[in-house]
Write a structure and sequence with these properties.
single chain, about 300 residues, alpha+beta, Immunoglobulin-like, Type 1 dockerin domain, 3 domains, eight-stranded mixed β-sheet, five-stranded antiparallel β-sheet, 15 strands, about 15% helix, elongated
Length: about 300
């Protein structure tokens, strides 16, 4: 009887033990994190940057590249020392058939998400435009949250991306000049309205528009700055009594004016086109007033 009871108890214990699962991360739980390569065609160099996902305490990364990318010795950096993370770098890692640049790190608490864990500069061998995401790989990535794996090269994923710089050329039209560089280089995806240049105006001229002022940079491009002669309603190159006549006829609702003509007609910049503007042009034509001065309401590019 005692033996049978013992066997029953043992069997129950085995069932309980087997029914308790050990917490492990499933493949669906493994995190992804980003590595991006910025290709600079002007200097024929590339910069590779990797950022950590949330929750990482420690890890090891080994990055390899194709023959098109040659590491600039001493350019590799990792997590900022201010975070107090222990980091080991090895630019000549070669073990078990795996070679490249290695970064190992550990910390007592989770490292903030998007912390740069890898940054290195490479010289490009050949044409920079031929560099793709196939030219770099993260051959080892082991991340831990302090108690279990977050991702490994067996069951995690690294999102690889590539960006490039493009040349933007600015051209000033008649009536003004650039007050900043005529040619700049910016990264793909840069918002165009953040790179629009400053300008100066010739006497009597106003700013009309940029040929492109929105969207993002995705290729080499030229952006023109357009100016206009204030008071030149009929666009004949001068502001005189003919332009005043057009304004008076418009004010009397005898004719219509297009947007460019209305812009030129508003010489006092009060937002209306009327007899006051016509009178100002007549005084200018008679030599009583000097050149019109542009009201710099929006002379600063929007950010």
């Amino acid at each position: 009887m005692f033996k049978r009871s013992f066997c029953l108890i043992s069997a129950l214990l085995m069932v309980l033990i087997c029914s308790v699962s050990v917490p492990t991360a499933s493949a669906a739980d493994y995190v992804t994190y980003d590595f991006s390569l910025f290709v600079d065609s002007e200097t024929n160099t590339a910069t590779l940057t990797g950022k950590l996902p949330a929750g990482a305490f420690s890890g090891k990364l080994v990055v390899s590249t194709s023959d098109k990318l040659t590491l600039v010795a001493g350019s590799t950096s990792s997590i900022n020392e201010d975070l107090g993370v222990f980091v080991e770098l090895n630019e000549s890692y070669n073990r078990d058939g795996v070679s490249g640049v290695a970064v190992a790190f550990t910390n007592s608490v989770a490292i903030p998400e998007d912390t740069v864990v890898f940054n290195a500069k490479y010289n490009i061998v050949g044409n920079a435009n031929e560099i793709t995401t196939e030219d770099f790989d993260i051959v080892i990535w082991n991340l831990s949250d302090g108690s279990q794996r977050l991702a490994t090269q067996a069951d995690g994923d690294v999102v690889k991306a590539i960006s490039r710089n493009y040349t933007i050329t600015f051209v000033a039209g008649n009536g003004g000049a650039l007050a900043s560089d005529a040619v700049i280089s910016v990264a793909s995806g840069t918002r165009i309205n953040t790179i629009l240049p400053q300008y100066t105006l010739n006497d009597g001229y106003g700013f009309k528009s940029y040929s492109v002022s929105s969207g993002t940079v995705e290729s080499d491009m030229t952006i023109s700055l357009e100016f206009y002669l204030i008071g030149d309603v009929n666009m004949d190159g001068s502001a005189d009594n003919l332009d005043a006549a057009f304004i008076l006829r418009y004010d009397a609702m005898l004719i219509t004016l297009d947007d460019d003509a209305l812009m030129a007609a508003d010489v006092n910049f009060d937002g209306d086109v009327n007899s006051l503007d016509a009178a100002a042009i007549l005084k200018y034509d008679a030599g009583i007033n000097g050149p019109f001065h542009y009201a710099e309401v929006d002379n600063e590019p929007c950010s």
